[in-house]
Amino acid sequence: MAAxxxxxxxxxxNYGAVIAVRDVDLDVYPGEVLAICGDxxxxxxxxxxxxxxxxxxxAGSITLRGAETRFRSPHDALAQGVATIYQDLALxxxxxxxxxxxxGAELTRGPRWLRMLDKPRMARExxxxxxRLSVAIDDMRRPVEGLSGGQRQAVAISRALRWDASIxxxxxxxxxxxxKETAQVLDLIRHLKSEGRTVLLISHNxxxxxxxxxxxxxxxxxxxxxxxxxxxxxxxxxxxMIMTGRAA
Length: 248
Ligand SMILES: Nc1ncnc2c1ncn2[C@@H]1O[C@H](COP(=O)(O)OP(=O)(O)OP(=O)(O)O)[C@@H](O)[C@H]1O
Ligand SMILES: [Mg+2]
Fold this sequence. Notes:
The structure is a single chain. By secondary structure, this protein is an alpha/beta fold. It has a single domain (6-244), classed as P-loop containing nucleotide triphosphate hydrolases (Rossmann fold), CATH 3.40.50. Helices cover 33% and strands 27% of the residues. The protein is built from 8 helices and 12 strands. The protein has helices at residues 44-52, 74-79, 97-101, 119-132, 149-162, 179-194, 206-212, 235-244; strands spanning 6-15, 18-28, 33-38, 59-64, 67-69, 82-85, 108-109, 116-117, 167-171, 198-202, 215-220, 223-229. The strands form 3 sheets. Strands 6-9-10-3-11-12 form a 6-stranded mixed β-sheet, with helices on both faces. A 4-stranded antiparallel β-sheet has the order 2-1-4-5, covered by helices on one side. A hairpin with a 2-residue loop joins strand 11 (215-220) and strand 12. Helix 5 runs parallel beside helix 6 (179-194) and helix 7 (206-212) crosses helix 8 (235-244). The structure holds adenosine-5'-triphosphate and magnesium ion (MG).
């Protein structure tokens, strides 16, 4: 088996007296779609916040590509190749699609003393990233607030692609979406998978998990209680495992 891309050892996260995550060991291998499931309050988002740099762990260590690391902020994690996409996170609704895709890493042109934004090139490349995700939008100057939920997810994913993120974390990517948009986001995830990117997917939708995941980790009261290949698991099996904390 290949070496893990990302490893957690003994990771814990407390909020004051609340233990949100306790002693989690997790290995994430290149190219897998790892679903993290569990009841409300099980600690999924808290675990993801540690991996995405949004929160410092209270205990434990993180190893990325074989070297121990720390993520000081979501931007720091992004720069190390770990991108996180929340429902609306990090998109600036009033800014254009192109500005959102290149936020924090704008393309410029001209000599150093006359540096200016290279808007035509950013528009061109933003369109190309979206096209890679099979999303066709003509005008890259459109503000993100006018896009559908699925299109917005595609913009957020394009931003991750711009940073060439190897790990893309999605926390409930379809929770607020309609049927058609949900299908579109599932296609985006399939696309990332086909590009060999690693996806961490948090979802309460067992049908989505059964359809996409290559591995399932289940959390209960902050601990990881199950970690197994998803082959052959149906939505009901996963639901059952979440309820009982035991493998089906
Ligand atoms: N900022 C915070 N301050 C205090 N407690 C928190 C904070 N964030 C989360 N918690 C607590 O930590 C525990 C785990 O919460 P977390 O949001 O990680 O669960 P989750 O598995 O993502 O749940 P859900 O499925 O509802 O999103 C819960 O008991 C929650 O109340
Ligand atoms: Mg959550």
